[in-house]
Structure formats: C-alpha cells, structure tokens
C-alpha cells in the first residue's frame, strides 16, 4: 500500500506559502546561490592544492660575500682540511639561523660552502643557497626576498661572523650547475629529487640492521666482485676513481683484471659497473694479526658523481671520536654468521668502543692495535658480518659523512663482548695521500 498523509490534499495547500516558495527560488536567486557554492568549492580546492599538492621546486643561488672579521688560513684552500670544514659549517649554521628564523623559514632547504678564498684582510665566501618555492614563482622575486631576509637579519642579530653587506651577490643557478657545485664536496647525501637527505634514523644491525630505505643513502658504498664468483667485499668511493677497502679482501686474488666494482643499493642490478685497473695493498698488512688491513683499488674508468654515486670524506689524521660515538656501518654482507650475501644494501647503527675497553681480557685481550678501531655494542646483537669486509664505517658530522673505519674482523658476528673491529682510517690518512694524492 502506498503511503498518503490523511486529511491533506494539494487543493488545500495554502496558496500564499506556495507563492513565497516560488519567489525564493526565482532564477536570479538560484543563479547567485549556485555561483556562491561554486565559488566556495573553488576556493576550498585552491586552498587544498596550495597546501597539499602545490608543486614546489628547488630554487638555487650562488652567493658570494666577504667576511671581514676572520683571517684567511692556508688550509682553507684544502677542502678536506679540518679548518675548511669547520669554517664552512659555521657559515652554513649561520645561514640556516638567518633563513629558518625568517617568516618564510620553511622555504629554506640548505646552504653549502663551495670555496673560501683570501680577500684583503678577510675571507671571500662562495656558497650555494637552496630554497623551496612554488615552481610558478620567479627567480628574481625570490632573490629579492632572500636578500631582504639576510639584510634584515644582519641588522637585528649578532653573529660571530661579520658579513660585508655591499659585497653580497646572489646569482641564480640551475639545478645541474648546483649539483656540480655540490659535487665539489665529499660526504654529502641527496635524494633523487636533489633534496638533502636527513640524518639516518635509528637502526638495528647488518646482523640485525635494516635495508637502506633510499637510493643515495650511502652513495659511496661499492661492491667488490671477483668475476665468476660474485660479491666478495665492500669498498668506499673516495674520488672519481679510487676505492678504499680492506687488504684481506685481496688475500686470495690481487689480480686487478679479475675484479669489478659496482655501485648502487643492489648488487643486481647495479647502478654502475666498473673494472678495476690497479690494486694497492698496504705493505705492512699482516694476515695473522690483521694489522694494517687497508687497501686501495683504482677503477679503469672514472665514475661521475650523482645523487646515487658520491664520494665519502676522508677524516683528518687528527680527528678523534670519543667512545660511544654513533656511527653507521653498511654492507651487502650476511645477516647471520656464515649466511649468504644480501642483494640489497643494509645499514646498522653502532657505537665506537674505546681501545682500552676493547683490549680488556674479557673482550679482545690485547689484539687491538693502534691501527684498529672497535665499534658495536658490548651486549652484541648489532654488527657487521661476513661479506661486509672492506666496507665503510661512517660518522655524520653535521650532514657531512666521514669514513672512520673499514670493516676488518671480529670473532663471529654480533656476539656479546665481541664487537666489530675496523681499520682506523685516521691512522692511514697519510698512507692514502701518498698512494692516491687525495
Ligand atoms: N672478515 C669479514 C669479511 O671478510 C668481516 C668481519 C667483520 N666481522 C664482524 N663481526 N664485525 O667479510
């Protein structure tokens, strides 16, 4: 049965009301109403797009300016020197304070010192500044904003470095030029979209580590492979042609023509493949004690640096890491004692252990020489393992990565009181320079 309200028919519907309704929805009102709705929806979509899908792009500038209250030092000319690195960091920190504090703070991506050169009484600084703005924005407009922000900040804030305002120049550069400029510095990680990679989050082991999350996270990592036998060792890129690795990797075979090196986060497929032209094993490598477990391999053809292939910084021989410093080890090695090689690169966070502790009778009982460095945990669990040998132990100094160790040996893997033992790279800094000129 159909439902019909009792005692109500259309004829009885009050006329006046009916007319009022008709008037309310007259064509003009209807049009206005529709327009309003459309406008509201339009604005809402606009707002959402603005915040969510806005197409941001990196705007890069080369900045040059003079700092008048510091004196030029000889070592500023050497990018691997501590003086250059520390001064550059100071300038970069200052830039990030200036731009992060400003209203458009979220727009600042990073700054990077490229060169320090002498200028009268002071120092000339060349650096790259990177900002994130909608791709529709103009380079000129952003340049003005950046200049204004800097000038204002210099007026208000007290900084340890005095920038001469009239010397400040800002030149837009395209992202290719920027990449080339950034590539003039070692130890820098970038995402595929040219954004800097953040510091690594907490991780577990290679034995108990995790797969690396992103391409380009450890761009200096290489796999050294024997033709026909596959992955043998890890290695680290320290220039366009030189790899740093462990001497014991070449115990069985030191004929360069039998070796290849690959780069990228997987062994198959590799991002890049190169043949090896030269192998230099430390003259005083002793297989019985593992002392001086360091070697160099030179590629026959250079690799070009990119976001996925990059060189790691070599530390000054004077660099010291206190015990319990957080460092990362990476490799394609097994995740259990005597397990198979991993196709995907893995990483683990470990901590440096003082040689005094590592040489204790209940630990390695005096086997640790001055050329070795222990890292891991006394309770075990996290460690490098078989196949990680030759690979890097790296230290993150304000987003610049230094190779401080080379995976060398250990009693089994990840056992309590048996941490990983690494070649102490600082001790061989001069040896590396004498063989490679780096
Ligand atoms: N010697 C091993 C190799 O050839 C690496 C040993 C590292 N061991 C350790 N427990 N950290 O791959």
From TrEMBL:
Membrane topology: Single-pass type II membrane protein
Domain Peptidase S1 span(s) in chain numbering: 206-437
Keywords per UniProt: Disulfide bond, Hydrolase, Membrane, Protease, Serine protease, Signal-anchor, Transmembrane, Transmembrane helix
BP term (GO), one: proteolysis
Subcellular location, record wording: Membrane
Pfam annotation, one family: Trypsin
EC number: 3.4.21.-
Example of a GO cellular component annotation carried by this entry: plasma membrane
Broad class of enzyme this protein falls into: hydrolase
Domain of life (superkingdom): Eukaryota
SUPFAM superfamilies: SEA domain, Trypsin-like serine proteases
Listed InterPro entries: Pept_S1A_HAT/DESC1 (IPR017329), Peptidase_S1_PA (IPR009003), Peptidase_S1_PA_chymotrypsin (IPR043504), Peptidase_S1A (IPR001314), SEA_dom (IPR000082), SEA_dom_sf (IPR036364), Trypsin_dom (IPR001254), TRYPSIN_HIS (IPR018114)
Transmembrane segments annotated in the record for this chain: 30-53
Domain SEA stretches: 57-175
Keyword Phosphoprotein in record: no
Active site: residue positions: 248, 293, 389
Example of a GO MF term: serine-type endopeptidase activity
Record-stated family: Belongs to the peptidase S1 family.
Name recorded for this polypeptide: Transmembrane protease serine
Species this protein is from: Heterocephalus glaber
